[in-house]
Amino acid sequence: MRELSLHILDIVENGIAAGGNCIRIEVDEAPKKDQLKIVIRDNGRGMPIEKRDHMDDPFITSRTTRRVGLGLSLLSAATERCDGILRVDTQPGKGTEVEATFRYHHIDRAPLGDIAATITTLIIGNPEIDFVYSHCIDGNEFSLDTREIREEMEDLSLSDPVVIHHLSEKIRSSLKELTSGKNKS
Amino acid sequence: MAKLTIEDLKKIKEKTAKETSLRDGPASIKITVHMGTCGIAAGAREVMSTLMEEMAEADRHDIRVVASGCMGMCSSEPNVTVEAEGSEPIVYQLMDSNKMRQVFKRHVLLGEVQTDFALAKM
């Protein structure tokens, strides 16, 4: 994958496929500490033990349409490439937490990419799922909770493309603010 | 801490209310963007973003967009399925932003199946 935000999109889709209805996405960029952490937590059915133990084996997969599953394997390879680790914590019936860490300044670390597109793609493509997204850059945080948005928007649907358009603009400008806040300090 | 505040939401809501009429009623066309690992790696997110832009422009309330997983034809990703009420679903293959635009304008809005990009009908 060319961008880490594409990995996020992919792993979140896994969580939705596992029957989760609320997905938490946390991105923590800490250039000063030379660390980038991505946490994705779902409340789906969890993974069977044999899958967790062979997480980075692409030939172990729960899917039925083909015999290779690449999502976690690719993310695992991406973290290892940048002196990071992939940790997966799964509890049957309760959900799965995937935590990927990277060395922020590692030359092989893919850029985070268009995270706003990832979030809005998830929201519009999965209208019945709730997302909680928080993004932290050197201690400055931005967060978004679709449950709150839904409550506030009342008659307007979140799958409305115009709403989605404004939402992605808002995410982009907020993240830009976070980054410029970092430069000031 | 920055947060998507109630203020922001109100602004978004106001803008949206100005730009669109109320969108409800039954969906007569369903567009599925396949977003498995294979689709995402091949560029499905860009296809979805373009689709969102086109939808915003078209202002039609009977079109539904959904994301789904891989359907097993990874070599032809990104795949997009267009299901219009009363006709067979058409699967498009090797999509990109431009093809998505064409498919949306011609097939979704006007009902002309774009056979050049089609993989199959189901």
Structure description:
The complex is a heterodimer of chains A (185) and B (122). Chain A is of the alpha+beta class and 185 residues long. Chain A has a single domain (4-184), classed as Heat Shock Protein 90. Helices cover 39% and strands 25% of the residues of chain A. Chain A has 6 helices and 6 strands, in the order αββααββαββαα. Chain A has a 6-stranded mixed beta sheet. Chain A starts with a helix and ends with a helix. In chain A, 43% of the residues are buried. The mean pLDDT of chain A is 86. Chain B has one domain: 3-Layer(aba) Sandwich (Glutaredoxin). Chain B is 40% helix and 21% strand. A 5-stranded mixed beta sheet of chain B has the order 3-2-4-5-6, with helices on one face. In chain B, a hairpin with a 5-residue loop joins strand 4 and strand 5. In chain B, helix 3 (44-58) crosses helix 4. Chain B starts with a strand and ends with a strand.
β-strand percent of chain B reads 15-25%
Which word captures the global form of chain A? globular
Assign the CATH architecture of chain A. 2-Layer Sandwich
Please tell me the overall pLDDT of chain B.
Answer: 85
Total strands of chain B: 6
Please tell me the total number of domains of chain B: 1
Task: Please summarize what this structure is.
Chain A has 185 residues and is of the alpha+beta class.
SSE topology:
The complex is a heterodimer of chains A (185) and B (122).
Chain A (H helix, E strand, L loop, with lengths): L3 H14 L4 E9 L4 E8 L6 H5 L17 H11 L4 E6 L3 E9 L11 H11 L4 E8 L2 E6 H8 L7 H24 L1
Helix pairs in contact in A: 1-3, 1-4, 4-6
Chain B lengths: L1 E2 L2 H14 L9 E6 L2 H6 L1 H15 L4 E6 L11 E5 L5 E3 L4 H14 L7 E4 L1
Parallel strand pairs in B: 2-3
Antiparallel strand pairs in B: 2-4, 4-5, 5-6
Helix pairs in contact in B: 3-4
